[in-house]
Write a structure and sequence with these properties.
This protein has about 200 residues and is mainly α. About 45% of the residues lie in helices and about 5% in strands. Helix 4 packs across helix 6.
Length: about 200
């Protein structure tokens, strides 16, 4: 009895995915469902979960949700995994979400050997629940961490880096850095406008 033109399966699934990335199970999601859309999702979420359990299935988000919750709620298992995975490396750390952050924290309590690589200026996967605070707060969350800035660019010309730097300085949430390159000045940066994607592809 849900209007699927207003509440498509895709939008409902997306909301459930976001909830799981925030470590919210159906009961927790229902408690914070204040608007009508969220209340509809709160009705569907437990049914969706039951159907998956009945089918002995998991979705993509469960692959993060359940390990994160297990590390949080089972101290013995957390300690065993922490001992097994004594060195943890995470690439593209700026695109991690709350569940991924919880896994990283859980695996680095007894052996805090965590190395992350990331660039807050390149956080683009908001749709997967990526939380920029994970990288912005890294030094606070992991005191004693050594931060190494990789500021030399080997790909772009000086003109491109200068334009990129001038644009990105308008971001309010960022870690300051100055890119430089040994490459030549290069051509001036230009702006091209296209009417269609096909026109752009033909260039």
């Amino acid at each position: 009895n849900i209007d699927v033109t207003r509440f498509t399966p895709e939008t409902i699934q997306s909301a459930i995915s976001k909830a799981k990335n925030q470590l919210l199970l159906p009961d927790g999601y229902a408690k914070q469902a204040h608007d009508y859309f969220a209340q509809v999702v709160a009705q569907v979420y437990p049914v969706y979960e039951k159907k998956m359990r009945d089918a002995n299935a998991v979705d993509f988000d469960d692959l993060l949700l359940w390990p994160a919750l297990a590390l949080k709620n089972d101290p013995e298992m957390r300690a065993e995994l922490d001992a097994r995975f004594r060195y943890v490396l995470i690439d593209e750390y700026q695109d991690t979400n709350k569940a991924q952050y919880a896994i990283a924290r859980g695996l680095t309590v007894d052996h805090p050997n965590l190395c992350v690589v990331g660039d807050p200026d390149q956080s683009v996967y908001r749709w997967r629940g990526a939380d920029i605070r994970n990288i912005m707060d890294f030094e606070n969350d992991f005191p004693g961490a050594c931060t190494i800035k990789l500021e030399e660019n080997f790909r772009s010309t000086k003109a491109i880096l200068r334009a990129a730097d001038q644009l990105i300085t308008h971001n309010v949430k960022r870690k300051p850095k100055t890119l430089y390159t040994a490459k030549e000045e290069g051509a001036k940066v230009g702006i091209l406008l296209f009417e269609t994607g096909m026109e752009e592809a033909d260039l």
